[in-house]
Structures are given as structure tokens and as C-alpha cells.
Design brief:
The complex is a heterodimer.
Chain A: H1 16-47, H2 52-76, H3 80-100, H4 102-105
Helix pairs in contact in A: 1-2, 1-3, 2-3
Chain B: H1 2-34, H2 37-43, H3 58-68, E1 75-78, E2 87-91, E3 99-103, H4 118-126, H5 130-154, H6 158-162, H7 171-185, H8 187-200, H9 202-205, H10 208-214, H11 218-226, H12 244-255, E4 259-265, E5 273-278, E6 290-294, E7 300-303, H13 309-322, H14 327-355, H15 357-363, H16 368-396, H17 404-428, H18 432-445, H19 447-454, H20 460-466, H21 469-516
Helix pairs in contact in B: 1-4, 1-5, 1-14, 1-16, 2-4, 5-8, 7-14, 8-13, 14-16, 16-17, 16-18, 16-19, 17-18, 18-21, 20-21
The chains are: A mainly alpha, B alpha+beta.
Chain lengths: 108, 518
Amino acid sequence: MSASPSNVKQGRSTTRTYRLAVFSRISAALAGGYLVAYASAALLTVILPFSRINRAVTASLLSFVVWALVAVWAFAAGSAWRSWWPLLAAGSLMLLLALAFRDYGMRP
Amino acid sequence: MKNAFRQSMAWLHTWAGLIVSWMLFAIFLGGTLACFDKELDYWMRPALHHLAPGPTSMDAAAASLRTMAPHADTLYLRPPDARDPSIHGFVFEPSKAYLDVALNPRDGKRIPATVGGNFFFDLHYSLQAGKLGSYLVGLAGMLMLLALISGVIIHRRVFKDFFVFRPRAGGQRAWLDGHNFTGVLGLPFHLMIAYTGVIIMMSNYMYAGVQIGYRGDLVRYYDALSGAPKIVEQHRPPDHVASLDAILNDAVRRLGGPVASLEVEHIHDASITVSALAAGNGKVAGGLRTLVYDGAQGSFRSELSAPPAAYRVYQFLSGLHRVQFGGTAIRWLYFLLGATGSVMLATATQVWIKKRSRQAGAAGLRSGYGLVKILNVAVIAGMPVASAALLWANRLLPYDLPDRANLEAESFCASWLLAAVWGALRLQRGKPWRDLFAVTAVLLLALPLMNALTQPRSSLLASVADRDWVLVGVDVTSFVLGLGFAWLGWLSTCTRQRAETRQRAAALSLTQAQAEAP
């Protein structure tokens, strides 16, 4: 699982480890990326200095940029574990913050 | 460190790209064809080709829609415009399929059903698979965005490689050059189309803003977007229903330009309301102004306030994707860039397999490599066959068949399946690419002839005489694309031969070397 691109060589590209590593990175990029994107949209809906509808739309528009950056980062991380845990941590933290201030997020 | 990063991006590019490349190819080709959805709609509806001159009746169209969907609460009507002479009706009826019909602008009668060019549009945004399909397309769009970003990072010499094309180098090198050329040529377009494509349907899959800002209440969210005041039901039928034609005329006069669509809400209640949305008039974001009328008396009630700024940004971004703003020239530009993107995706899957040709050859067809090879030929060479077959089905199926639109869609699916099976079977020995390209070429080259035989009044010659340039355009484009596919078929025959000659030569020199060895 801890295979990273630099220690997986072309010749071994068909091994089970390599397939698992690819699967782990892609799911981190997609599922982990979605979690962070969703959480960032939630948090931005709370903190952006606009009116409510503008906050909600702007947050959603930006969340896909966040997703793309996070996915790139998930592939660049040194190991599969290091590609997963910061995403889970950052996503949960932002989501918790957004939920904690959700009444403030509903201001007009 | 820097190298490791680039290597990880190569990894991302390879795998994020491969898993969605076939789906993206179908989405790209569907979207490319959907640039001319209304033109194909028109070609596929011969009943619209020779309309008797006369006034347009929105009222007849609305009456016809109401008999088709008696329980619907809301009707959408699109008046005829420069690209589509029919009145288009859209209706949602509770617990029934979405009704989308073309109506005769004179008497409101339904035009014989066809899936129309809209088929490619549906395929493009939902793979014809409803909500699940739209999630898959959204995910594919996201992966495309990732493949583009990582592609730019791994590509050190973007500018230099743009001018490098070595078709004679053969194999992986030539495919890679082709992939780089088409990828870099369309890069700004591809980045734009991937991002705007993902955000277009964002309310389908990015709920966070609605969840936090509106406690998940989508209705309130949409009300805030449209800025429309809430209509209060009066729970009694309207004693009078105003003429939609009169409302349309008034709206055109007040807006000083054409109306894109009329929305009639609460049609069974005294609170019946008609909204007229202004046409975009070349604005990327589309029409800005909406006029609201009392649907019972026909009197002008109010103009909606301009949409919120962020929503305007969204409309601009989705407008860039929907390309309803710049007329035929821009649509052709999108068509060509979309075709370039399709070629980029087709070459990408070839690069993947050529790079692994040794392993793929050893593993045979019953392996992951074989699956990639089969999908390559089934999707990339198969979909054009199906798309051309759809146009044939449209002309060959009798016009009075009640289930005509479904039969057209089924002929598309059946011909794709057939092409895929043929391609897979011929991979073992044979030239599947050549076969399928040849079939597409024949179908496209012969389309004008088939059209002339089945619809003599809409034939190429008749259309030139009538100066109906849309019909001329479809026939001529089909013929030119047919020539293109014939060329592709010829190319795939030759490259295969060249590769075989090379292999034979290599094998020969090897045996010679072995024979000469002591």
C-alpha cells in the first residue's frame, strides 16, 4: 500500500501492490477530494463576506477548484497513508467548523 | 524532489486518464455533435421542412400540450427562432416521463416524434442514464480536469512539442505526438470545457451551499436564484385564460428583442402566471431579463430583479459551455475543438496500449490489456458507426410509428453493440479499425443519397434550390466526414501493414542473427 511512484518501476507495474496503490490514490483523489471540496463549500458558505445566495453559489463554484488541487496533492504525497489522512483531517475539521457556525451561515 | 513530483503527476495522468477515457470519448463526441443539436433536430423532422407560410400560434401549441399532459401544472414553450422553426414544448407531469415535443408553429399539432439532435445532448450530459448518468459524467469531467492539470505538469516542453509530429516513427511515438498535438492545441478549450462542464450540474452533486445556507431546502435556494416572488394559489379555476400570443407580442415589444421561452405556471388555478425570458442576444450568459404576466387577464405584472451576481457568474460559465451565444461560426469552432478533443482521447488510449505492447502481446486478449484493446475499438470506432446509423434509422423508420423515437434510440444502441462485438471478434485476426471506419464512411458518404431517396423534397439538390442551408449543411458535412473516415480506414489498413512488415523484418534479422551465431 505504501507504494509511491518513485519506488514502483515500470517492470513491476502489473503486481498486486501496484494495482492497490493506484486504486488507493484514485480513491483518495476522488472520495477524499470530494470530502474536502464539500467541506470547503460548507465552510465558505459560512465565512464569505457576501449575501447568502452569493455565498452559496460562490462556494460551490470554488469547491471544484479545491477538489482538483486536493486530488493533485493526493497523488503527489509520499505514501498512500500520507495521501489519505490529511484529507480526512482537513475535511472533517472544515465540516465541523461549518456545522458549528451553521446559524451564522444562514444569515441573509 | 522535483522529478518525483513530475513522476507522480505522470502516474495521475495515466490512471485518472485511462479509467475515464472511453466514457469521456463518448461524452466528447456526443457534445461535439450536440453543437448542432437544433440543426440535426431540424434535419430529422422533415415535417418542418416545407411549412406553409402563416402566423405562429403559441395558443394552439399550449392547447395541444395541455391535451398531451392534462395533469401538468407548468408548461414551457419555446417560440420559433432562427435555428428551429417549430414551437418546442416541455412538460413535467407528476409521476410521468418528461415530455419534450416539437409542435407545428401554425396549428400546434405534434410533429412526428424523433430523438432528434437532442439525443446527442442527452448522451453528452447523462449518457442517457438519468441522474446516475449525470453523476458519472460529473466524475468523468473532474477526472478530465485532473488529467489536464497533470498533463501540463508532465509536459515540460509544451511549446516545442507542439511542432513535433513523427507519424513515420510509428507505434507509441507517433501516437504520443498526435496526443500532444491535439491536447496542446485545444488546451485552453479543454480546461474551460472540463471546469464549466463540471459546474454546470453542480446543484446535482455539490449540496454543501444549500445544506449550510438553506438547511437543505432546495426550493428556497432556487427561489433565491430566480428572484421570482412566490405565487399564492387561490384554489379555484381561472375564469379566463389570456392569449399567450398577445403576451408574447407584448413581451417582445417591452424587451425590444426576441423572447427565448414562455413559462406558464399554475395553469389550473386562478393564480395562473406567465413569465417571458428574454433571449440572450449574443450574451454569453444568456437572457438577463424576465417579465411576469397575469396569466388570466394577460396584463403585465412586473419585471424580475436581475439575478444575484454569483449566479450571473455561474450563468456566464455555463453559457461558455452551452455555446448558445455566438452564432454558427462559434458553433463550428466548438465543433472543431470538440473533434480535436475526441482525437486527443482516442490517441491517449492508443498511447497507453502501445507503451505496453510487449506485455499486452504476451498477455493476449483475455487480460486487462485485452480489455483496453477491446474498449478502444468498441468505443472509438464503434460510436461513429452508431451515430451515423441513428441518422439512417431516422429516415428509414416509417413516420407514423407511435414508438418511433424509442426505435431510433434502439437502433443507435443495437448498431453500437454490433460494431463492438465485430470489433472485439476481429481483434484476434483481422482489421477491426479498418472495418468499422469503413462502415462509418459508407454510412456517412451515402447519407445524402439515402436522404434524397426517402425525402425527395429535402434532398441536397432540392435544399440548394430552396436555399435551406441547414439541410444542405447536414448533408454536406456528413459527406465530408465520410471522406474523413474513409481516410482513417485507409490509414489503419496501411499502419497495420507497416507494423507487420517491420515485425517480419525484425523476426527475419533475428533468425539470421541466430543462424549466423556459432
